[in-house]
Specification:
Strand order of the largest sheet: 3-7-1-14-11-12-13
CATH class of the largest domain: Alpha Beta
Shape: globular
Bound molecules: dioxothiomolybdenum(VI) ion
Largest sheet: 7 strands, mixed
Number of helices: 18
Helix content: 10-25%
CATH topology of the largest domain: Aldehyde Oxidoreductase, domain 4
Distance between the termini: 59 Å
Number of domains: 3
Strand content: 25-35%
Structural class: alpha+beta
Length: 736
């Protein structure tokens, strides 16, 4: 341990200078000799069969190297579904193995040419004819209360405690509302990109914009029946990723096309390809019903939802999860059905489920507070449970009431008028809203790391982890420096390559603690190796791993005893460097405890009385996410998530043509994410109580920041205007 802790300092991002100076090479820029370029051709119907493929004109277009369709694609196995040790895919739709069409936008051909422009042009000349069949596309058929359709694919596990329906009927006060949220699409600055080079029939390298290196390696091994050891996946820089830079059809097709073309092939998705080929966030319809006593305590909490996924896919958007965790109630009725439609797959997108689920739950709570004439924070405080309300486990650390109190002070919540439509500034109605945030703590199994110390006094930590811009490289160097007792500038952190020890995906807000747990294991192995090297006259001779601590650049007997620096041990043993490698301990901390990140979102809006335009004018997020390793990168994570939440509240919506299943707004011109002018200064703060059960006391910061944001905006819009909008996004037509 360092006497002066580096963990907790606002260290600037290590990858920052390379990114802002243009020195960073992204997947679409990696130089590869003999590279050819690919373009996808995607279906224009949602369901049916391909009945004809005419490649005549495309084949004779300039620069064409190869064209692959299901007629000449190699046999490929189906990728394992969801994130497991065997892979990370959100679909089990077979890729180009048959003539069947499963969604509008499914890749049906891939054209390889000498230049990207030639590939684009030749792809435009491919003619596919289809025999359409009837597609299931109408979300409105799935309304809550409508008969169960025949294509219910699965359900998120229901939670039934007591008789919530009966409690609701006899409650002193109740609200019973339906909320809707639209389909969302991932809009990272860098579109998905991949480059594949085969070395021989059995080995390849894939450069990929991914948040799942080890799992992509495993997926390719499964799909192409290869030994994972013969597959190298490299992902040094990623230009943003929010849950779906995992394995999709485009990487598999790029690899297959590279084999067919006998050339390295690069495939960069266009923005519209991102909308059509990769999955987004499902539409939801959610019913929240709350039954309460006069003091606000809940007799019934009902949260029922319908969400969708594509045919052959299987990701249940867990929008009913916050309702299990946040509030005490006598009876719970929580249920969710997942229905298959002929759409792109539903995939994880920042705070999957929780972000849109909290919109419904936190708006309903605001409605209840108003009916009871209670301050919404006072109501939430009265509902604070002593233990996890639906599984009975104690919380490892939950300080929401403190967050409510400190957040309210800092935001000036007491000055809010509780009467809707009562504050005005010129043409603008002004209002404030609040909502609670929660996101589960996860530490994924399967992560490994190595730690190397060298005779020149440096240490290098290696793991196949991901830096998508959130600060991984920086915070891990900080942690390792403290753990090894070295100055920060003596510690390297190498990542982004499957040649390093296996890592968990950067998902579920789980990467940071997962890596820390594997560095702990690797360091223990390193200490054992170092002690083995020490000579018989060393003060460390005969010491065991538990007898020593790491500080001042070396290994020392505990309690201030003597020891040796790392270079001293290595030099005396005639070694240039020494490595320890280890696997993270199994994530058993969640067996006995309910572990979650928490937060509370305070929002002020101004709503124009003529145009209905909603401007967010002030924000405070107060978070309870355990120990903060780096205030600079954590604050940036929270802010980014809040920006994304504001997008979901006010503008983001992927629109499908319900006759054809085609995305109508597959571009950033028509799918509106917030720009700088839409975002006020965002204040973020945190309690910083280390979680006693988590490695280093840290919990996830990547996703919880998005939870509750849309509800806080909607509640503020109600406070400003008296209008309840239960249907995202909150566009002017709904406000007026
Ligand atoms: Mo997060 S949506 O699990 O990357």
């Amino acid at each position: 341990m360092n006497a002066d802790q580096i963990v907790g300092r606002a260290v600037p991002r290590r990858d920052g200078p390379a990114k802002v100076s243009g020195a960073a090479r992204f997947t679409a820029e990696v130089p590869v000799a003999g590279l050819a370029h690919a373009k996808l051709v995607c279906s224009t119907i949602a369901a049916g069969e391909i009945v004809g493929i005419d490649l005549t004109r495309a084949r004779s277009a300039p620069g064409v190297v190869a064209i692959m369709t299901h007629d000449n694609a190699p046999a490929m196995r189906i990728a394992p579904l969801l994130i497991t040790l065997q892979g990370a895919s959100f679909t089990r739709a077979p890729v180009m193995q048959d003539a069947r069409i499963r969604w509008n936008g499914q890749p049906v051909a891939i054209v390889v040419a000498e230049t990207p422009e030639q590939a684009d042009h030749a792809a435009s000349l491919v003619r596919i004819s289809y025999a359409p069949t009837e597609a299931r596309l109408l979300f409105d058929d799935l309304k809550i209360g409508a008969p169960q359709p025949d294509h219910v694919q699965g359900e998120a596990p229901a939670v039934t405690l007591g008789d919530a329906a009966a409690a609701l009927r006899t409650a002193h006060t109740s609200v019973d509302r339906v909320y809707r949220t639209p389909w969302h699409t991932h809009c990272a600055i860098e579109p998905h990109a991949t480059t594949v080079a085969w070395h021989d029939e059995r080995s390849l390298t894939m450069w990929d914009a991914t948040q799942a290196i080890t799992h992509s390696q495993a997926t390719l091994a499964e799909v192409f029946s290869l030994d994972p050891q013969n597959i190298r996946v490299v992902s040094q820089f990623v230009g943003g990723a929010f849950g779906n830079k995992m394995m999709w059809s485009h990487q598999i097709l790029c690899a297959a096309a590279a084999r067919l073309a006998q050339r390295p092939v690069r495939l960069v998705l266009s923005r519209s390809d991102v909308f059509r080929v990769t999955g987004g966030r499902t539409r939801t319809e959610q019913r929240v019903a709350l039954g309460a006593r006069a003091d606000g305590t809940l007799t019934a909490l009902v949260h029922e939802a319908t969400t969708t996924t594509g045919v052959n896919d299987g990701f249940a958007e867990q929008c009913t999860f916050p309702a299990r965790v946040l509030y005490g109630a006598d009876a719970f009725g929580i249920d969710q059905r997942v229905v298959e439609l002929h759409t792109p797959a539903n995939s994880s997108m920042r705070a999957p489920g929780e972000s849109v689920g909290s919109f419904a739950l936190e708006c309903a709570l605001d409605e209840l507070a108003e009916q009871l004439d209670l301050d919404p924070l006072e109501l939430r405080t009265r509902l604070e449970p002593a233990v996890h309300p639906t599984n009975g486990k104690p919380f490892s650390g939950r300080h929401l009431v403190e967050a409510y109190r400190l957040g309210a002070e800092r935001f000036g919540w007491a000055e809010r008028s509780s009467t809707p439509r009562s504050r005005r500034d010129g043409r603008w109605w002004v209002g404030q809203g609040v909502a609670t945030a929660t996101y589960p703590y996860t530490r994924m199994p399967g992560g490994r790391a190595s730690v190397t110390v060298s005779a020149d006094g440096h240490a290098t930590v290696r793991t196949a982890a991901h830096e998508m811009g959130m600060g991984t490289a920086t915070v891990q160097a900080q942690y390792a420096a403290d753990h090894l007792g070295l100055p920060l500038d003596r510690v390297h952190f190498e990542y982004g390559d499957s040649r390093h020890p296996a890592a968990v995906p950067a998902g579920g807000s789980a990467q940071t603690v997962s890596i820390i747990a594997s560095v702990v294991a690797a360091t223990r192995a390193l200490i054992a190796e170092l002690l083995r090297l020490t000579a018989s006259d060393s003060p460390l001779a005969g010491a065991g791993t538990d007898d020593v601590s790491l500080r001042d650049g070396g290994v020392y007997l505990r309690d201030g005893g003597a020891g040796q620096s790392y270079p001293d041990i290595l030099r005396r043993a005639g070694r240039g460097e020494l490595t320890g490698e280890g696997a993270a301990s199994p994530p058993t901390e969640t067996a006995q405890h309910a572990m979650h990140s928490f937060g509370v979102q305070f929002c002020e809006v101004r709503v124009h009385d003529v145009t209905g335009e909603v401007r967010v004018s002030r924000w405070l997020g107060m978070f309870d996410t355990g120990r903060i390793i780096n205030p600079r990168t954590a604050a940036s994570q929270f802010r980014g998530a809040i920006v994304m939440g504001i997008g979901s509240a006010l503008s983001e919506e992927t629109v499908f043509d319900e006759r054809t299943g085609r995305v109508l707004n597959a571009s950033l011109a028509e799918y509106h994410v917030p720009v700088h002018a839409d975002i006020p200064p965002i204040e973020v703060a945190w309690l910083g109580h280390p979680d006693p059960m988590a490695p280093l006391g840290g919990k996830g910061v990547g996703e919880v920041g998005m939870v509750g944001v849309a509800a806080a905006v909607a509640n503020a819009v109600h406070n400003a205007t008296g209008r309840r909008i239960r249907d995202l996004p909150i566009t002017p037509d709904k406000v007026l």
